[in-house]
Design goal:
The chain is of the alpha/beta class. The protein has two domains: about 200 residues, NAD(P)-binding Rossmann-like Domain (Rossmann fold), CATH 3.40.50.720; about 180 residues, N-(1-d-carboxylethyl)-l-norvaline Dehydrogenase, domain 2, CATH 1.10.1040. It is about 50% helix and about 15% strand. It has 17 helices and twelve strands. The strands form three sheets. Strands 5-2-1-6-7-8 form a six-stranded parallel sheet, sandwiched between helices. It has a three-stranded mixed sheet with strand order 4-3-10, with helices on one face. Strand 1, helix 1 and strand 2 form a beta-alpha-beta unit. The mean pLDDT is about 95. Bound molecules: nicotinamide-adenine-dinucleotide and D-Mannitol-1-phosphate (44H). D-Mannitol-1-phosphate binds next to helix 7. Belongs to the mannitol dehydrogenase family.
C-alpha cells in the first residue's frame, strides 16, 4: 500500500505520516521546502517523541520525499499508483496542490481502485474544498472521466504538534494524545486500512466538536496569552484569569454543541476538561505565535470563533465570552505572520462595519453583527 502525503511539516511528520506508516503504508512525503525534502531523503528514519502521560518514542521508516515545486513529474507518477492521498498543508494551500492531483488522476489506470483522498486540515469539510479545487482545475467534461478514479472523504484530525526546534532536524515532538476521525460513507465497503483512525457515518458533529472546543479554546488561550505578554501556551493556562476566560468560551461553545448535535453535556464537560489538561502540558513547547497564526483565517465565517458565536446568537444563547476572545484576537500582531499585519492594516483603514463584513462575512441583519461591530469599534478606540 502506498500513501502520498502533501505537507511534511509538524502534523505531516508527527501524526498523519506516522499513522499511515503504522498502518503499513509506504509513505511518500510531498513538500515545497527543499531543505526538508533533502533532509528526509538523507535519513533512513525519523523519530516522533510523544511527550506527556502515556507518551513513547516512535520511529518512522520506509518513506521517501518528493519536492512538489521542482519534481512534478515524479510526484504525478507516485500519485498515479498510490492508494491514498492526504494533505496537511493548511486550508489556504489546497488550491495549490489540487492541479497536480488532477493531472495524476488523468493518468491513473482506470482499472485501479479509486484513490482515497483525505485533507487533514483544521477546517470544516476541507476535503470537499480540495475536491472543488481539483474539479475546477480541469474542464467539466474531463472531470466526468476523473471523478470515478477518486473517493473524497472529510476528516477531523487532533494532535497538538508544536513548532519544532531546528536542532531536532526531522524528528518531531508531539503530545501523546491523537484522534483521526474519517467519514466512512464515501468509501462504501472499501474503507482504507488505517487502524489508528476511526471511521464514522456522520463527521459533522466530530469536526465541529473538535474545531469549536480544541481550536476555539486554543486560539482563545493564544490571543489572551499574547495580550498578557506570555509566550508558551502551557504558561498561559497557568494564568488563572486567562484559564477562566478559556473556560467561559468553552462553556459557550459546549452549550451549542450539546443543543445542536445532542452531545451529552457531561461527556462534553469531560472532553473540554481533558483538552484544558492537554493545553497545559508543560513538556509541549507550544507558543502563542503558532497557535494564534493567521488570525484572518481564524476570524472567518466558518471558523472557530465566528461560526459558533453566530449560531449561538441565532439561537438566542450567550456568546459574550466568545466576543471578548474575538476582541483579544484583534490585538494579535507578530512580525512574521502576514495575516496579523494585514489585520492591523484593515483595523486602521476600515470602519468597524467594513471590517466585520470583510473579515467575518456577516451581513448587518445577522444577530451577531451588532455585537461584533461593537467589539471592533472598542478595539479601534
Ligand atoms: N500542528 C498541529 O497541532 C495541527 C493539528 C491538527 C491539524 N493541523 C492542521 O494541519 C495543517 C498543517 O499544519 P502544521 O502545523 O503541520 O503546519 P506546518 O507549517 O508545520 O506544515 C505545513 C507544511 O506544508 C508545506 N507546504 C506549504 N505549501 C505547500 C505546497 N504547495 N505543497 C506541498 N507542501 C506545502 C510547508 O512547507 C510545511 O512543511 C493545517 O491545516 C493545520 O491546521 C495542525
Ligand atoms: O493549525 P491552526 O492554525 O488551525 O490552529 C492552531 C492550533 O490550534 C492547532 O494546530 C492545534 O494544535 C491542533 O488543531 C490540535 O489538534
Amino acid at each position: 500500500m502506498k500513501a502520498v502525503h502533501f505537507g511534511a511539516g509538524n502534523i505531516g511528520r508527527g501524526f498523519v505520516g506516522l499513522l499511515l506508516h503504522d498502518a503499513g503504508y509506504e509513505v511518500v512525503f510531498a513538500d515545497v521546502n527543499a531543505e526538508l525534502i533533502d533532509a528526509l531523503n538523507a535519513a533512513p528514519s525519523y523519530e516522533v517523541h510523544e511527550v506527556g502521560d502515556g507518551g513513547s518514542d516512535r520511529t518512522v521508516t520506509g518513506y521517501r520525499a518528493v519536492n512538489s515545486a521542482t519534481n512534478e513529474n515524479e510526484l504525478i507518477a507516485e500519485i498515479q499508483t498510490a492508494d491514498v492521498v492526504t494533505t496537511a498543508v493548511g486550508p489556504n494551500i489546497l488550491k495549490f496542490v489540487a492541479p497536480v492531483i488532477a493531472r495524476a488522476l488523468a493518468l491513473r489506470d482506470s482499472g485501479l481502485p479509486p484513490l482515497a483522498v483525505m485533507a487533514c486540515e483544521n477546517a470544516i469539510n476541507a476535503t470537499d474544498l480540495l475536491r472543488t479545487e481539483i474539479q475546477s482545475s480541469v474542464a467539466p467534461e474531463q472531470w466526468e472521466a476523473l471523478a470515478p478514479r477518486a473517493v473524497f472523504a472529510n476528516t477531523a484530525v487532533d494532535r497538538i504538534v508544536p513548532g519544532q526546534d531546528p536542532a531536532a532536524g526531522i524528528d518531531v515532538t508531539v503530545e501523546a494524545f491523537y484522534e483521526w476521525v474519517i467519514e466512512s460513507g464515501p468509501f462504501g465497503d472499501a474503507l482504507p486500512e488505517i487502524p489508528g483512525a476511526t471511521f464514522v457515518d456522520a463527521l459533522g458533529p466530530y469536526i465541529e466538536r473538535k474545531l469549536f472546543t480544541v481550536n476555539t479554546g486554543h486560539a482563545t488561550a493564544a490571543y489572551y496569552g499574547f495580550a498578557a505578554g506570555i509566550d508558551k501556551i502551557s504558561d498561559v493556562l497557568a494564568n488563572s484569569g486567562v484559564a477562566d476566560a478559556v473556560r467561559h468560551v468553552l462553556e459557550e461553545t459546549s452549550a451549542l454543541l450539546v443543543v445542536k448535535h445532542g452531545i451529552d453535556a457531561e461527556v462534553q464537560r469531560e472532553y473540554r476538561e481533558k483538552i484544558l489538561t492537554r493545553f497545559a502540558n508543560p513538556h509541549l513547547p507550544d507558543t502563542v505565535q503558532r497557535v494564534g497564526r493567521q488570525p484572518l483565517r481564524k476570524l472567518s465565517r466558518n471558523e472557530r470563533f465566528i461560526s459558533p458565536a453566530a449560531e449561538l446568537a441565532e439561537r438566542g444563547l450567550s456568546h459574550t465570552a466568545l466576543l471578548d476572545a474575538i476582541g483579544k484576537a484583534l490585538g494579535f500582531e507578530v512580525a512574521d505572520d502576514e495575516q496579523s499585519t494585514e489585520m492591523q492594516g484593515l483595523l486602521a483603514e476600515l470602519s468597524a462595519e467594513e471590517f466585520v463584513e470583510r473579515v467575518s462575512g456577516l451581513a448587518p441583519e445577522h444577530p451577531l453583527y451588532a455585537g461584533l461591530v461593537a467589539v471592533v469599534r472598542e478595539h479601534q478606540k
